[in-house]
Amino acid sequence: MGILLFISVLLVAACGLIYELVAGTLASYLVGDSVFQFSTIIGTYLFAMGIGSALSRYLNRGLVYRFVWIELLLGVIGGFSSALLIMAFAFTQGFELILYALVIVMGVLVGLEIPLLMRIVRDRYEFRDVIAHVLTFDYLGALGASLLFPILLVPHLGLVRSAMLFGLVNAGVALWTTYLFSTQLSGTRVLRIACVVVLCGLGIGMADARRITATAEDNIYADDIIFARDTRYQHLVLTRFKDDLRLFLNSHLQFSSRDEYRYHEALIHPGLAAVPVPHRVLVLGGGDGLAVREILKYPQIESITLVDLDPEMTKLFSTHPMLTKLNDKSFLSPRVHIINADAFPWVDSNTESFDFIVIDFPDPTNYSLGKLYTTAFYRAVARHLSAQGLMVVQSTSPMFARDSFWCIAQTLKQAGLQTYPYHVYVPSFGEWGFVLAGTHEYIPPTSLPSGLRFINVEGLPALFQFPPDMAPLPMPPNQLNSQVLVRTYENDWKDISH
Amino acid sequence: MKVGRRKFLRTGSAALVGLSLKSDRPITGSFVNDAFQMGHLLRDRASFPPPKRVEKFPVVIVGGGIAGLSAAWRLRKRGFTDFVLLEMNPQAGGNARWGENEITAYPWAAHYVPVPGPKAELVRELFEDLGVLKNGQWEERDLCFAPQERLFLYGRWQDGLEPAIGLTQKDRDQFRHLEDLFSKFRASGEFTIPLELGRSAKYQGLDRFSFSDWLQQQGCDSRLVNWYMNYACRDDYGALAKDTSAWAGVHYFSSREAEEKGPLTWPEGNGWITRRLLERVGENVRTDQMVHRIAETKRGVSVFSGDTEFQSEFVIFAAPTFLAPYLVDAFPRLHDFIYSPWVTANLTLERLPDSRGAEPTWDTVFLDSPTLGYVDATHQSLRTHIDRTVWTFYWALAEGAPAQNRQLLLDKDWNYWKEAILHDLERVHSDIRQCVSRIDVMRMGHAMIRPAVGSVFSEERRRLTRRDPRDGRLLFANSDLSSISIFEEAQYHGVVAAQAALKRIGSRP
């Protein structure tokens, strides 16, 4: 019996550490600032364990019985802690409150475990052996957990299911205990039924973890959701699979960190490098700071104005360590001015002129966004172009939404601009299109900033060639009163999905 | 303090209701822009104090709606500035008044102008002046944005207001039959806007019976066809088809080309035009001026308002014509001027309600509702993100006699209309009570002229419209002279009356 008993000490210790790590990791994913999160969570957790230890002296009778219940409770709370925290973050304002409450409750329960166990076995061994064995296995369990967590659990199971797995372990220990100490227990039937219920609950949770984390969105976000928030303007979800970060706005993929450089280099450099002496740049949309990162590669640029609707989006990409790593802290550059405003009214009321204008809005999936793809809008934007200025428009896929792409090009033409459509291949998007537009002829650049991974001078002319399956189509321009683009876009994508 | 058990339960349950997530919002609001108190002073021949001051203007315009403002616009455009416009209400604009809150400007009545056809030269001239028409092109921002109109029927939405889903073969045949007839009428050139420029005696016969009788003669017994024809009459005339002259019913469908561009509209509806006109003529406009008497003298006309006598050579009478017998000395009784009462309301929405999956449109109508639906004031906004808005709700009290409905307007309190409006909206937007924070209601007893049977070709109307020097120095200008109350008619009569005044001033000895 001895070794079996000490293995449960090991397992219990591992569970305790896993819950702590889950809480710490989730907090740093969701809120950021990992040093602060880990420090405070470990501190709080240990402190709560101390409270648990202190409380253990008030438990006098039925120690095994109580131990089983503590294990079950911990299995449920710890097992669902990760799912609970993700939902708390997505659906409530009080994430921190719930986080620390959960950490304290788990800490207290974990703090009760070891003292109780020691007292349960103290009659069988010498006191010095009890201390030595229990603590040895306790520390061994902690080592195992701390190695398992980053190497196996997070990459393969994800946070939600890791926590549940260890919830199962807690409940398993509880069930096992009812057999180990069946002689010291009465009412084992009830206890065992409770254990089975908890095990089943967690088992279902494991199988259904996806649905718990992201309810209906799950088939879209195949990877772990590390951030989800409903801002005033949109539903923002960040997922991660190994080194691949993906941002979804209202369920539409905005970028994948593996290939976004292709998209953003293609968006910026063919146009910006062709402007003789660019000083001032305007970016409409682009709240991820990735286009700005590319623009900052031109030392002669004095100022970049970025107009994005959503302050939470620009704040997130200014502060979140994973994201600022991705955009090279572009929003922290003193050359960058962030304005959180609705683009059309801002363009209408502003009078500045710019040498390069980037229009990088989400695709025209509804009539509201459709307004930002109209002749009226492009006319208003073109008034901000300097004499040598150019603008570039993210124009959806010329392959999957061919009608829409050429409709956008035609709209720019109708607004009185010369247009130069081009396209690139972005693996996570497929073929993607852009339209350069200006009031004068576009001459492709003969030099580009150093350090680009995708765009080069030799390759530029090929971007402007459209093979037959993406070749121009005659399309009407998109206007506020017709909004043909929204319907066109809807039909284009409908054709693909059927 | 002793709290009774009953009271305790009541407050307790109220607190619980307040805590539940789905509780209704408290809705505030009131009646606004009431004008009947002033009108009733005239009706009841109240006595007014004698004038203390005299002011002299060659031309006085009575009434600051679109007709009066258009007259002023024409006078100033011709370089004539020596006139005054007297408006009874604190705000000029008449049926083209607007309101404004922290969310948006919104209309109080008329909210669009169809893209004018080639006959409507004066409207085109105005829109060129306002920058809406440039080099033959309509400014994109002033055209109604897509999507424009939707109709709720059979638990779902359809685009456009003419029922197009769930039709039987009979419904379809009758709609097509009518469209054929209307295009023939259209081709005849008799049904124009302005009405005066096309109308001849050719179809005068249509004015002798009602539009519903005419529909019956055409074999139109389809329920949906009749709903749509009645909707059109309620919308433009505030009347049912049975109370509308067949000539006017045909005019509604035969006077405009089926244009793709959609109407011209603005967040504050035709209030936008009022604003632009006031920028041009505002210095001649005096509000809160209730004219209580107009007397023709040997040398001219005196207009009495407050404590002032305005002595003029000509008066452009742009107020509703039915007021003339109460204002003008020895004016005969009028018989052919019947007006439809209306209720309009502006609803402030703190969030957009459940719309059964549909994106918001400009104009929303429910099949079989006694009301006319609502228009979204933020539809013409250039913003992409709209979370609060204002809806203008329209309700022509067409069922029953106008006089009875006017009494209803006086009898019922604000709460009655609030509930009636929410009840109507609730059928489609189930959570509307959780979205609306304010409902302001405007009651108009004489909101618009009704083209009743016999009124389009009325002799009385013809006489008031001819602006003949033999008829004196009063030049009538209200849109009710056309028997239909639309922007283009008001503007036409205002401008023509101003031109007549200028001509007679220019030719004076």
Quickly describe the structure.
Chain A has 17 helices and 11 strands.
What can you tell me about this protein's structure?
The complex is a heterodimer of chains A (498) and B (509). With 498 residues, chain A is of the alpha/beta class. Chain A has helices spanning 2-31, 34-55, 63-91, 95-121, 127-180, 188-207, 209-214, 260-272, 290-295, 311-319, 321-326, 343-349, 367-370, 375-382, 402-414, 460-463, 484-497; strands at 224-230, 235-241, 244-249, 252-256, 280-285, 303-307, 336-339, 354-360, 385-394, 418-426, 430-438. Chain A has 3 domains: 2-216, Growth Hormone, Chain: A, CATH 1.20.1250.20; 217-253, no CATH class; 259-497, Rossmann fold (3-Layer(aba) Sandwich), CATH 3.40.50. Helix content of chain A is 55%, strand content 15%. In chain A, strand 2 (235-241) and strand 3 (244-249) form a beta hairpin. The longest helix of chain A has 54 residues, at 127-180. Mean pLDDT of chain A is 90; it is low at 216-222. Chain B is an alpha/beta fold and 509 residues long. Chain B has a domain at 45-97 and 267-335 and 454-506: 3-Layer(bba) Sandwich (FAD/NAD(P)-binding domain). Helices cover 31% and strands 19% of the residues of chain B. Chain B contains 14 helices and 21 strands. Chain B has helices spanning 5-19, 36-43, 66-77, 121-129, 169-188, 211-217, 223-237, 246-254, 271-281, 324-327, 402-411, 414-426, 459-465, 487-506, and strands spanning 31-32, 53-56, 59-62, 83-86, 98-100, 105-107, 133-134, 137-138, 149-153, 156-159, 285-286, 291-296, 301-305, 308-312, 314-317, 339-349, 363-366, 374-376, 389-396, 436-449, 474-476. In chain B, strand 12 (291-296) and strand 13 (301-305) form a beta hairpin. Chains A and B meet through helix 12 and helix 13 of A and loops of B.
